[in-house]
């Protein structure tokens, strides 16, 4: 029997989002994932659907980002050097177009899921969760997850979206840009902010104003592994999400929490990615007709990236 149809954004255009030599966020991350995906394709029983990348239009980026900032990225891109922020996120020739491909491809997966052309989707270069409406940060130029959430709410008319972020870093862009929006339910696992960039994501932050209680931060201390992740999920996440009825689910599946990542101190195995994607897959089939799109995110040990993300694809291909 065939499993669920999983659309994976696949193409050389996705390799364009690659910072200059010596930077940890380079094209070989996606290349290694594509290689591994080809190796396991046989196990997926025909579930894999290759989705050609799509460039977002400027007006799509403006659903979320501020116009002055978009113009700033265009200018920096034309110049092709220097930094977009204070030193983590360099400009490079073509960085504007490369970022448009990331955003457009996440939106394309969402449209395909909404039209039931695929059941679920995965964009390996998406999940750029640190960018804010008005600035770049932490290797993230445009925040495809932020654009996607705003698109689902404002253009697709959905009333509630669940965003789950398992990257080792707190997804501060998405978290704070939707902090006061009660339509956006957020669960964010990350290494404790006192020990890692961006230094945010404390458990007392639960959403502001009428959105209070719609956000859940789960900071874990360095050294926490698969067991700690699963325990926290069982203790905190299951009850939390039961209180909502999302119409679409987004998973930011950053792979930098795996043991051996050069930038972080968590000790997950790829089982964390399998587990989170499986649980959310089941939940999506229960509450929102299976509408679930996953994105990549961080991950700087190439082998880990390839392993973690193929587990995500497998979990989405396997009917719950
Ligand atoms: Zn499914
Ligand atoms: Zn990260």
How would you characterize this protein structure?
With about 325 residues, the chain is an alpha/beta fold. It has one domain: Histone deacetylase domain (Arginase, Chain A), CATH 3.40.800. The chain has 9 helices and 8 strands. α1 (about 30-40) crosses α9, α7 (about 225-240) packs parallel to α8 and α8 packs parallel to α9 (about 300-315). The longest helix is centred in the N-terminal third of the chain and has 20 residues, at about 95-115. The mean pLDDT is about 95. One zinc ion binds near residues 4, 120, 285, 290 and 319.
Short description:
The chain is of the alpha/beta class.
Please state the second-level CATH architecture: 3-Layer(aba) Sandwich
- CATH-defined topology: Arginase, Chain A
Question: For this structure, what is the CATH class?
Answer: Alpha Beta
- Helical coverage, percent range: 25-40%
Query: Can you summarize the main beta sheet?
Result: 8 strands, parallel
Radius of gyration: 18 Å
Bound molecules: zinc ion
How far is the first residue's CA from the last residue's CA?
Answer: 13 Å
* Number of domain units: 1
Structural class: alpha/beta
Order of helices and strands: EHEHHHEHEHEEHEHEH
Q: Pick out the low-confidence regions.
A: none
Number of helices: 9
Number of DSSP strands?
A: 8
- Our estimate of the beta-strand percent is 5-15%
**3D shape:** globular
Task: Give the name of the CATH superfamily.
Answer: Histone deacetylase domain
What's the average pLDDT?
A: 97
């Amino acid at each position: 029997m065939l499993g669920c149809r999983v659309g994976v954004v696949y193409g050389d255009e996705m390799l364009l989002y690659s910072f200059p030599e010596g930077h940890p966020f380079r094209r070989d991350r996606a290349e290694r994932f594509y290689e591994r995906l080809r190796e396991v394709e046989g196990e997926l029983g025909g579930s894999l659907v290759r989705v050609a990348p799509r460039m977002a239009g400027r007006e799509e980026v403006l659903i979320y980002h501020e116009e002055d900032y978009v113009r700033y990225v265009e200018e920096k891109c034309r110049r092709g050097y220097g930094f977009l922020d204070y030193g983590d996120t360099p400009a490079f020739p073509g960085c504007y177009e490369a970022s448009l491909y990331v955003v457009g491809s996440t939106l394309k997966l969402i449209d395909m899921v909404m039209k039931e052309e695929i059941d679920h989707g995965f964009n390996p270069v998406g999940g750029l969760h640190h960018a804010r409406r008005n600035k770049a940060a932490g290797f993230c130029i445009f925040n495809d997850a932020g654009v996607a959430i705003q698109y689902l709410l404002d253009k697709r008319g959905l009333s509630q979206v669940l965003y789950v972020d398992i990257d080792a870093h707190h997804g501060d862009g998405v978290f704070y840009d939707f902090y006061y929006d009660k339509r956006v339910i957020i669960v964010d696992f990350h290494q404790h902010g006192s020990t890692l960039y961006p230094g945010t994501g404390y458990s007392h932050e639960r959403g502001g104003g009428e959105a209070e209680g719609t956000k859940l931060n789960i900071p874990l201390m360095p050294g926490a592994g698969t067991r700690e992740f699963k325990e926290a999920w069982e203790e905190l996440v299951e009850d939390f999400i039961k209180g909502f009825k999302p119409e679409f689910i987004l998973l930011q599946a950053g792979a930098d929490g795996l043991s051996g990542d050069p930038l972080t101190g968590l000790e997950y195995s790829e089982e964390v990615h399998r587990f989170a994607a499986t649980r959310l897959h089941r939940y999506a089939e229960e509450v929102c007709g299976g509408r679930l799109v996953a994105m990549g995110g961080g991950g700087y040990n190439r082998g880990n990236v390839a392993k973690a993300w193929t587990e995500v694809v497998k979990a989405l291909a396997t009917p719950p």
